[in-house]
Automatic annotation (TrEMBL):
It comes from Methylobacterium oxalidis. PANTHER family: BLR0908 PROTEIN, POLY(3-HYDROXYALKANOATE) POLYMERASE SUBUNIT PHAC. Residues 232-433 form the PHB de-polymerase C-terminal domain. Residues 1-23 are annotated as: Disordered. This is Poly(3-hydroxybutyrate) depolymerase.
Length: 434
C-alpha cells in the first residue's frame, strides 16, 4: 500500500476554503467536538453491527461458500473499520537482527510526564551503541508513524523516541503544553539518556530540536547532544513556500484559533482542555487525496472478498495507523503556527525560550546534519538546509547535508530509499560524532 502520509499539521487549502469567514460553519466551531462525538457514537454502533454480521457469516465462508457470502463478509469487515481511533497503535517491533543474530526488542518507558513518555527500545547487545533520541512530530498522529524509521535505526543504535500522549486524555490539572514545554521535554529526555546522546528530529520538531540544542549549549548542559539530524523540517518557511506555507500566512492567527480549536467534551479525562483535534487534521489529509483514499477502500473490499489476505492486510495496516489520531494542545499548535509559519522567528534567529532570546550561534559542539526530499511538497527543498546558515558557530567539518533524489516528504524518513540510500549516510554521520 503506497499511500503518501504527511506530517504537515495545517489543514488543507480545500478545508480552509470550505470555512469562509462569517459562515454558519465558522460560527459553529465551539461545538465542533460535540458534533464529532455524535458521529463517533454512530461509528461505534456500525462497528458493533459489523462484528455481529461477520460472526454470523464466517461459518459459511470457512465452509467454502463463495459469492455472495464472501461479499457479505467483506462488507461486514468494512463496517468493523468504521470511524477513527484515539488509542496509540503498537510499534510491534519484537526483535531486530544485529550482526548475525536476532535480538529481542523490549519497549521500556524510561521517563514520563502527563504529555509524553521517553520510550526506549531496549536490546541485549554485547557492545554499547550510540544513543539516539528520535523526536517524533506532534502532528495529529502518534509516534508509531515513525515505526519504519525506528526499525531501520535499531540494528546500529540504542534508540529512544518521544512518545507523545493524546492531549484529550491529559487532565486540566496537568497545566498547559506550549512551544517552550516541548523544548523542556527534549532537554529533560536528553538529560535522562545521559551524556553522549544524539538527536534525530523528523519534520515539525526540527525547530524544537534546534531550540533545545541552543538552550543546552548556552547553559553548558553536559547532556547536550553530540549530533542532531534534522529531516524535512520547517526551519525557514520563506524558502520556496509550499501550499501549506501559503495557507499559514493567508489567515491571521486569530482565524486559526476561532476555526480550528475546540474544547474536549466531558466524557474524556482532558475535559475542558482546548485542543486542535486530530480528527480535523486527518480530515484535511483525506481531503487532499480523496480519490486515492476512496480507491484504497474499494481495493480493500475486493481483496477481502477475493480472499487476498496479504494485500488486504497491507491496506488495513496502513489505515490502522492513518486513522489513529491524537489531539494537540491548543497553545502548542497556535504558538508554533505563529512562530514558525507566520513570524519566522527561528529563521530570523529571533527565537525566545521562557521569555529570553536564544542564539543558534551558541551551538558549537553539536554536529548538524540536514536531510531533504527532492519532491517534498510539504517542506520544500532549502527549508531544512537553512539550519546551516543559523548554526554559524559550527565548523564546516561538523556540518552535512543530503538531498534525497526521487522522494517526497514521507520518503525522507521511511521506505526503500530511506533504508538503502539515506540511512547509511545518517548512520555514518552519527558514528563519526560518537
Amino acid at each position: 500500500m503506497n499511500m503518501q502520509r504527511t506530517e504537515a499539521w495545517l489543514p488543507s487549502p480545500t478545508a480552509v476554503t470550505a470555512l469562509p469567514e462569517g459562515s454558519s460553519r465558522t460560527r459553529a466551531r465551539p461545538m465542533l467536538y460535540d458534533a464529532f462525538e455524535v458521529q463517533a457514537d454512530f461509528a461505534e454502533q456500525t462497528r458493533a453491527w459489523g462484528r455481529v454480521l461477520h460472526d454470523a457469516i464466517s461459518p459459511w465462508t470457512r465452509a467454502g461458500f463463495r459469492e455472495p457470502a464472501t461479499w457479505w463478509a467483506a462488507g461486514a469487515r468494512m463496517m468493523m473499520r468504521a470511524g477513527l481511533t484515539f488509542a496509540r497503535p503498537p510499534f510491534g517491533i519484537s526483535g531486530v537482527r544485529v550482526g548475525n543474530r536476532d535480538v529481542p526488542v523490549i519497549e521500556e518507558p524510561v521517563a514520563a510526564t502527563p504529555f509524553g513518555t521517553l520510550l526506549r527500545f531496549r536490546k541485549d547487545v554485547a557492545s554499547p551503541q550510540p544513543k539516539v533520541l528520535v523526536v517524533a512530530p506532534l502532528s495529529g498522529h502518534f509516534a508509531t508513524l515513525l515505526r519504519g524509521t525506528v526499525r531501520t535505526l535499531l540494528p546500529d543504535h540504542d534508540v529512544y523516541i518521544t512518545d507523545w500522549h493524546n492531549a484529550r486524555d491529559v487532565p486540566l490539572s496537568a497545566g498547559r503544553f506550549g512551544f517552550d514545554d516541548y523544548v523542556d521535554h527534549l532537554v529533560q529526555f536528553l538529560e535522562t539518556m545521559g551524556e553522549g546522546s544524539h538527536m534525530l528530529a523528523v519534520c515539525q520538531p526540527a525547530v524544537q530540536a534546534l531550540a533545545a540544542a541552543a538552550v543546552m549549549a548556552e547553559t553548558r548542559n553536559p547532556a547536550a547532544p553530540r549530533s542532531m539530524t534534522l529531516m524535512a523540517g520547517p526551519v525557514d518557511c520563506r524558502i520556496s513556500p509550499t501550499a501549506v506555507n501559503d495557507l499559514a500566512t493567508s489567515k491571521p492567527i486569530a482565524w486559526f484559533e476561532k476555526n480550528l480549536i475546540s474544547t474536549v467534551p466531558q466524557r474524556h479525562r482532558g475535559a475542558g482542555r482546548r485542543v486542535y483535534p486530530g480528527f480535523v487534521q486527518v480530515s484535511a489529509f483525506v481531503s487532499m487525496n480523496a480519490k486515492r483514499h476512496m480507491q484504497g477502500h474499494a481495493d480493500l473490499f475486493w481483496h477481502l472478498a477475493n480472499g487476498e489476505t496479504e494485500k488486504a492486510h497491507a491496506i488495513e495496516t496502513f489505515y490502522d495507523e492513518y486513522f489513529a489520531v491524537l489531539d494537540l494542545a491548543a497553545e502548542f499548535y497556535l504558538e508554533t503556527v505563529q512562530m514558525v509559519f507566520q513570524d519566522y522567528t527561528l529563521a530570523k534567529n529571533e527565537l525566545t525560550y521562557r521569555g529570553e532570546p536564544i542564539d543558534m550561534r551558541a551551538i558549537r559542539r553539536t554536529a548538524l546534519m540536514t536531510v531533504e526530499g527532492e519532491r517534498d511538497d510539504i517542506c520544500a527543498v532549502g527549508q531544512t538546509m537553512a539550519a546551516h546558515d543559523l548554526c554559524t558557530g559550527l565548523p564546516p567539518h561538523m556540518k552535512s547535508h543530503h538531498l534525497q533524489a526521487g522522494v517526497g516528504h514521507y520518503g525522507v524518513f521511511s521506505g526503500r530509499k530511506w533504508e538503502a540510500q539515506t540511512y547509511p549516510l545518517v548512520r555514518n554521520f552519527i558514528q563519526s560524532h560518537s
